[in-house]
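new request in #modeling-help
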Amino acid sequence: MTADPLLFADTVLSFRNVTVRYGSADSAVAVNDLTLTVEAGQRVALIGPSGAGKSTILSLAAGLTLPTGGVVEVMGVDSIVLGRHAHRPTRREIGIISQDFSLIGPLRVASNVAAGRLGSSSWLKSLKTLVRPGPVDEIAKALDSVGIVDKLWERTDRLSGGQQQRTAVARALFQNPQLLLGDEPVSALDPARSESVMAVLTGATNGDADSAKPRTLIVSMHDAPLALRHCDRIVALREGCVEFDLAASEVSEQMLTDLYLLDESAIG
Amino acid sequence: MTVSTASRLSAIPVRRARWDRRLWGSVVVVAIGWSFAQAGADLTAIVNRRGWSQVTSFFSAMFHPDLSWSMLTLTVREAGVTLGYALVGTALALVIGTIGGVLLTERIWQPVHGSMRWGWIGWMMGRLAFAVPRSMHEVVFGLILVNILGLDPLVAVLAIGIPFGAVTAKVFAELIDNVPTAAEVELRALGAGRLTALIVATMPQAFNDLLSYAFYRFECSLRSAAVLGIVGAGGLGFQLALSFQSLRYNEMWTLLWALIILSGITDRWSSAVRRRRNAAAVEMRVDIDGAGQDADLAPRDDRFVRLSALACAVSIPIAIWGLRLNPATLWSGRARRLARELVVNAWPPRVGLGGFSDLLRDSFDTVALAVLATALAWAFSTPVAFLARRRISSARSGPAVGRLVVSSFVRFVLLICRSVPPPVWAFVVVFVLFPGLWPGAVALAIYNFGVLGRLQSEVVENTDPTSANILAATGATRPGALLVATVPAVASRFAGLGLYRWEVAIRETVIVGVVGAAGLGRRLDEQTSSFDYDGILATILALLAVTVMVDLASAAIRRTLR
């Protein structure tokens, strides 16, 4: 490897014929022979009914789930080897807002946000995150952008669900990764707050003036209109397959209705 | 990251320190320092180098147990007796513990809103009532009951069942109180009764911990049944004492291996039951967690758990029959007459020679002994607990074979430490340490290291690995993710377990008193051998007072942990 692959990888995420089965029985297929490519700088929304495979795709992209079949490449690295120490530089460029927030309850909000940058510190240095999280002003800035800077020193498990979700968002913002994965990142927020947090997330992907790296956002969302307003590419999923993959402007009302329509034959 | 220009950064709040935690943290540090001072820190006055050869021959006999046919048949027969005591004793303890556990929770005495008001009187009375049997070690119960019932197997069963029932009640209460109140408060706000809300909302959340503790309690009963053998109750312990008196280490190790194997089987069985209980819980948070990669996490048929419950239910009547237990002995004329005589002899309690100042000194020594033992055990068991955890929490946690070898070895060492009864450890330690606080403290520390290491590794295994996985997935190193995500998640429960073991260690000081360890244990040992019944009562009352004070201090510290 002669050059930093991150700088030259225009394709951030590449799925080739990916299949994921849960359990040994072939009945539970979460993702079925899926092929998908996401370019740097795109803002992608995964939509579709429950069980369509949205979370599994994000989990695959995060390297938390391994495919049963096919190849998943994240920023040019095969996700199978993503667990190795040598790929820390790649992993620190992946930000995750998980559905259940995955925060550390007994810690203060500031420490949880600071944990976003553990990818660039040694394990010994990470001890400091517990005692004296820093840099406080940057942590406060991340929290302020989601409107909960007043909770900076609160215990995280004392926060409401919405506040915890925003803490998870702030952690990802503070981490400042190239690829930001959000599994229902605004599910616990009211409509107005959802709009502003989505604006912050998409704003983060616009890139800073001082950074040449284009950032990529992939979110799964139940709220299709919200997705249409904030993302520029909509990937609709159903039963582990891509139903349609279009620019946000090309998605019609009818397509959404069809997507969420209950499949009568499947019920029968 | 860009923040929209419209929003100016709001004022950053000031960080507030948790003063109650700092205060109690300092109290704990001072208490440990004081205990060290009490025991003496001059190594040359503590270590007896000449005893090493005895220790070496004891441990080398570990690899050469006596495997003669007569020894093996004896071991199997006595193991059956010990197992029977443990089974029936645990059954009794769980009945007492479940009923008592609910009664001792703080929340059952608390109205939906506001403080306990008068409820705390009920809570306090309940705790005091259970503190009495709990403050006495099984061996003390054994000594008293032998005077009433004679050498009857019922002595061992009651000596295990009553104090363990009281301990189980307290632990169950605390495990239940550790569950967040949210769900319960919600139900009570909807009009559900206290007991209903507790059973419906809180008990299911605590169930894994309760089940795990029940199995762990069975293991304790097994080892306690061995210790009770020394009093003459029969079983492995009695043979162990006989072999030790003649320093036949090879015979001892045959019996000890039997104990280790019995404990080990219970350990594995308990983990298996727990893992299956957990599978159901994990199933609910399938998603980004990376489900379907760890075969152990896959939802499974609950048949194993049901069969385990059935096996317990069937084996208890068999054990009762096999041991020839006859509850009628309890109210036989002879038992009543002997009980009356015991009360007459023991009342009024008499402090005896040395007066109150000696009793007070012994009480302080007992506290110091327990603090030292627990602090030593906890300091070693805490890092070891992470090594001992078996279930590999994430799909990506390095070479699994290496982890398995390390965890198996660590678990085996922990198993040996807690399977060898504390009096045996004490006899071994006293070869190399001069009499005083240290031999008792070290013996109890070895035993409690084994116990704490197991309990703590269970806490680690029961901890949701998602947070640590997410941090690792975003680039944190494994140890870094463990330190930042898993350690804070387990910290308060680790501290709670340490406090709980401190309370148990207070009671266990009695059984290491025999090796010239200072404190109330030695006093009790001297009084027992001279049938000084009124003196024994005074010592037991002092032990009771110490236990209640330790209990209160522990509850106060625990409140700051929540």
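bot summary: Chain A is about 35% helix and 25% strand.
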